[in-house]
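Protocol step 4 of 6.
Sequence for NAD-dependent epimerase/dehydratase family protein (Jeotgalibacillus terrae) entered exactly as in the expression construct, tag removed. Do not edit the line below.
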Amino acid sequence: MKSIEQLEMFMTEPSYALIEDFKKLDGDLLVIGAGGKMGPTLSKMAKRAFDEIGSSQRVIGVSRFSNHVLKEELEQYGIETISCDLLDDEALQNLPDVKNVMYMAGNKFGTTGNEHFTWAMNAYIPGRVAEKYKNSRIVAFSTGNVYPLTDVSKNGCDELHPVNPVGEYAQSCLGRERVLTHFSHKNNTEMLIFRLNYAIDLRYGVLLEIANQVFHDQPVDLTMGNVNVIWQGDANEYALRSLLHTESPAKILNVTGPETLSTRWIAEQFAARFGKTVSFISEESNRALLNNASESHKLFGYPRVSVKEMIDLIADWVSDGGYTLNKPTHFQEREGAF
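Step 5 output, structure tokens:
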């Protein structure tokens, strides 16, 4: 895989299962937060799935679109775009009414020192969106950060595990979930809350960060000794297929890969591919932020792209000097300070 175009064609290819699900999906799709890290490829995958079944259903991307190049790119792909500041209530209320809403907007990095904005984006705006789209089905992105750190031998937190978010970002994400669930109860709105842990792209993500450290002979931090990851294309597909699994009250669904991965093992895998010797700092803890996504695997099957495939793809991308977004995940953070 040598170019962004090749990457996105691979990442946005709809599976047979997604195409079959989209045959059952009525109404247009509004993607709120279409300008984020995952929004563009999710929107493109949805458009390809609708095109594959010969449907005229629309995909409409909503974002501030400070990147005008992205806005034009999505429009050339056949995706309608709307520039909107969600904190402008008049602009929010003027968004089109649709049957299906993918809610991906939020704020994470830069929370420390700007907590008020993070809470507004992550806990206030979702309520306004839920009221606006009370007659729609809504899939809302959340995070496994709402769970506490758990013993790595316990196979991660499933959907029934008590939440205990660490830090204001994670607390605001739980606020988003609680507000959305309130409106799901109040208005009988069908929702699914999509608790995602670490989507992987060749341009950003946990694996890329570790790969770059190994490639550039930097020590790998073992502060968070174990992680979960999932290929972004698989995460996008799970999200789109979740539109057929919304419920009232809101359904909770964990989403990540099936493995609990050792950070040390990941680094050693990249070292072997690069012909490098890897060094480490810090020591692994027996507790980590881990997500048990077996329920999503029961619904949608295992991810199509395996961990070894992701490592191979990223190793080649890094070796070839592939473009990156330079947006660290800060996955090593144990105190919730983002």
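Step 6, annotate. The chain has a mean pLDDT of 95.
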